[in-house]
Amino acid sequence: MEESELSEFRRTLVTSALPYANGRIHIGHLAGAYLPADIYVRYLRMKGEEVLFVCGSDEHGVPITLRALEEGTTPKAVIDRFHGENEKAFKAAQIDFDIYGRTSWPRHHEFAQDFFKRLMEGGYIEKRTIEQYYSEKMKMFLPDRYVEGTCPKCGYEKARGDQCDNCSATYEVTELLSPHSTIPGDGSTPVLKETVHWFLRLDLFQERLERWIGERSGWRPNVKGGAISWLKEGLRPRCVTRDTEWGVEIPVDDPDARGKRIYVWFDAPIGYITNTAVWAERSGRPEAWREYWQSEECRIVHFIGKDNIQFHAIIFPAMLAGHGDYILPDMVVANEYLNFLRAGQSAAEKFSKSRGTVVEVGWFVETFGADRLRYYLTAIAPETSDSEFSWRDFRDRTNGEAADVLGNFIHRTLSFTMKTFGGRVPPPQQAGEREERVAEKILQARADVGRLLESFQFRQAQNALMELAREGNRYFDEQQPWVTRKSDLGACARTINTCLQIAGALSRLMAPFLPGAAERLARMLGMNDHDKPGSWERIGVERLAEGHEISKPEILFPKLEPDQVPE
Q1: Which of 418, 388, 550 shows the shortest CA–CA distance to 31?
Q2: Using CA atoms, how far apart are residues 109 and 270, in angstroms rounded to an integer?
Q3: Of residues 304, 468, 466, 301, the one with CA closest to residue 382
């Protein structure tokens, strides 16, 4: 994404996929849809862009009711508990949403029902009689998430009724092979019975979506390729109601709607709109949400996991287009999966509660801190393919990179300043050719990190930041200030002044990725505006002045001992 493309829009709306409020978020979630979005938002704000960052709990659907059944409690008790716990975990990881909303809000039900009615009025939703799985043991129709079996596409034996977690294929539940009920206490093989449901006529959006997808630029191959693949198969009507008492009521006067609710994947993305509207109301500008959803001057960017691509690249855009009052997203950024590699194993496995491969965000931050979590997850981000988390690699990378490269450069520079120059920035002296190259490196780092963030290449962007820290260490070692301190104090002053300018640039470059460490560094350097709007363009331009006082250095990234990290 070129910088000029961003400037075409007056504002940007960034959304992260709504996590189900049926359990605590884990680091696989964080790496997929939340950390990269937060980095991107922080960068835009430092550039002075107008940006809104919305997310919230997805509180309807079968995952919620299943959890309630397992615990012998109510769906509301489940969502209230996990909404609060997940909001707290996001804050601990320094994911800075403008609002973290809820799809159980009455305001959300109003928006979801408005979409349903408008699409019905436009002829895009119709009622159909279909065959659906029914549990004779439990005497109830089974929503697709209550059915598990073998994927008709790849043969995975634990595929869900509507989507395969192994190959990301979507299908009708009746296409599933060897189906069985997943309701606690059931497990029976269901039978097919006739029932009535409402369908979104996705087929009517085929040509419109083909044009829209074809016009998108800068999309990752997994998103655009996936969307094109589904379009080539031909879009089919998709059921948008389910047999459940938990969810948004179907806004029709029809006895067949009793005991049914709007499908969670119809109402969930509308939650982005709801949360924007509630943010606007709380801000004292109740109509301001329209500036983000109904104005061509706004750019909408969705951050999701790869299992949500079809919903954000096909279904939600169709809903927005069919409604008629909304703009379509400009960008859909989808990460692949972050898998867990156990010690002694050769193959990684998906994060899973039942398999004991869940590393919860709240526990991780409490144990190791937000900076280590953010650094490592960005370093191994599953941007174009699945990646692996392992405890040994976490320890080795955070010690060998964050501590030994970035933290070491900062600590040796500030410690030398305190010891030799009384904690004040020494005079710059006359810059030589080597110092001019360092100044160019700082400007190049700013350009590289910005360019990479605007093209959603977060791993490479963090690498570009780290390359400046490596350059700082190289320069420090080459100039040998511990020698020139005794032989040529002017040369020593020039070296430390240059290193402090690198440190000042790093405090700003770090801010989107490592806000906690960046703030501590800025405090040590006596900088009070390192991440404020407009601060990005001052990187490499604004200098720490001669005589500016710095504080006693602290270790940014204490090293982890082997016994501190699980195997």
Answers
A1: 388
A2: 9
A3: 304
On average, the pLDDT of the chain sits at: 94
Tell me, yes or no, whether 407 and 552 share the same domain: yes
Q: Is residue 498 part of a domain?
A: yes
Of 389, 408, 426, the residue that ends a domain is: 389
pLDDT confidence tier of residue 6, bands split at 50, 70 and 90: low
| Rounded alpha-carbon distances, angstroms, from residue 460 to 21, 334, 445, 448, 464 | 32, 16, 11, 9, 6
378 and 401 within one domain: no
Would residue 434 count as lying in a domain?
Answer: yes
Question: In CATH, what number is assigned to the domain containing residue 454?
Answer: 1.10.730.10
Q: Helices 35-46 and 458-479 meet at what angle, rounded to 10?
A: 60
What six digits make up the tokens of 168? 């990301």
User: What is the spatial distance between Cα 351 and Cα 160, in angstroms, rounded to a whole number?
Assistant: 16
Strands, DSSP E only, in 118-174?
125-135, 140-141, 147-150, 159-160
Q: Of the candidates 353, 372, 389, which is a domain's last residue?
A: 389
Q: Are residues 381 and 465 in the same domain?
A: no
The rounded distance, in Å, linking the Cα atoms of 201 and 22 is 30
Of 5 and 68, more confident = 68
Residues 6+ apart with CB under 8 A from 225: none
Angle (CA) 248 98 295, round 5°: 75
DSSP per residue, 198-222? EEE-GGGGHHHHHHHHHH--S--HH
User: Does residue 374 sit in the same domain as residue 401?
Assistant: no
User: Cα separation of 485 and 495, whole Å?
Assistant: 10
Model-level pTM greater than 0.85? yes
Radius of gyration of the chain (CA): 26
Q: Is residue 491 part of a domain?
A: yes
Q: Tell me: do 320 and 374 sit in the same domain.
A: yes
| Distance separating alpha carbons of residues 306 and 226, to the nearest angstrom | 9
Q: Classify residue 314 by its DSSP letter.
A: I
For the record, the structure tokens of 440 come out as 């160019």
Instruction: Report which of 301, 318, 214 is spatially closest to residue 17, judged by C-alpha positions.
Output: 301
Same domain, 448 and 528: yes
pLDDT the model gives residue 351: 80
d(Cα 431, Cα 125) in Å, to the nearest integer? 70
Written as six digits, the tokens of 434 are 């080597």
The secondary structure of residue 346, as a DSSP letter, is S
368 plus 429 within the same structural domain: no
Strand partners, 262: 241
Domain that holds residue 425: 393-564
301 & 431 share domain: no
Q: What is the CATH number of the domain that holds 100?
A: 3.40.50.620
What local confidence, expressed as pLDDT, does residue 58 receive? 98
> Is residue 5 pLDDT above 60, yes or no?
no
Domains in the chain, number: 2
